[in-house]
Design brief:
The protein starts with a helix and ends with a strand. It is an alpha+beta fold. The radius of gyration is 19 Å and the shape is globular. It has an eight-stranded antiparallel beta sheet with strand order 3-4-8-9-12-17-18-19.
Amino acid sequence: MRELIYISRILKYILPVVLLAAAGTVLYTFYHKHNNYTSTFFSLDTVVCIQSDSNIINESKTEIQRINNIFDIYSPSSDAYILNKNKTLNQCPDIISAVKQTFALNDNFGPAVDITSGKINLLWHNETENGRIPENSDIQKALEYRGSENVSIGEDGEITLSCGISLDFGAVAKGYALDRLYNMYTDQDIHNAVVSFGSSVLLYSIDKDKTFDVSVRSDHDTIAGTVTVNPCFVSSSGDYERYTEIDNVRYHHIIDLSTGFPTDTGLKSVTVFSDAGLKSDFLSTMIFIDGVSSVSKYLSSPDFDVVATDNDGNIYVSQGITLKKS
């Protein structure tokens, strides 16, 4: 049923530009050309949309499903599930690569996005699925089980978790998959492609001067404006797409690890444009968690661009891009 709902949203809002919904489904289409290949399917817990002028659909779907089968922490057959259960795993280069990349970003930007916080995320997932809010005592206990120092990677390719922690790749898995697709398309000299995982998008072209128009939403029903960009990765985080309502209170899915509760720092949505998928996923989540008091310091970064909106309707835009307001 969830898959059908997402697909209906896509079909309803398709436009001839890239439409980016913060933390939600990216609704887009290419301008139609001859030999235009398209596919829409469900993977990585979202609807995936692929469009290209090359016949790369089957290879792309195979790679996406392979990544899903590795990082899905709720599937008993996945590598991530087995690692969390057994606390050790041999020979999974994708997990090791994602862990190393994320920890490197933590070293540069801080621990707000913590893939070792699987315990607290699982607690919120299980309780809200049953219409409950976690007990505060359970939240505080779950927060004790995290920290990159509890992850070790051996020279033989074995990854080990200690002190009872669990990994959760929800903040970076889609971006990691897009990085893999980017490498595939580059190796095969693919000309143009757009791949959308909803909150994470690859705008790919062999022509580095090609431009894409990206309409950035500030909430579910409002478009903040349009940004014109060259080929890049785009990721968004926000509080209004993935959420649960319990007793008329909305609880979204991004947890502030300083409190153990969903983030409430004044921002409504954050969209990041960067040169790598995992990086853009990480940054959009991190900036959203850091909140409105910190957003300005990211607007002059030479490595990525940001469009953010706060709860009062203010819009923050990086110096390197122009937002054409709707």
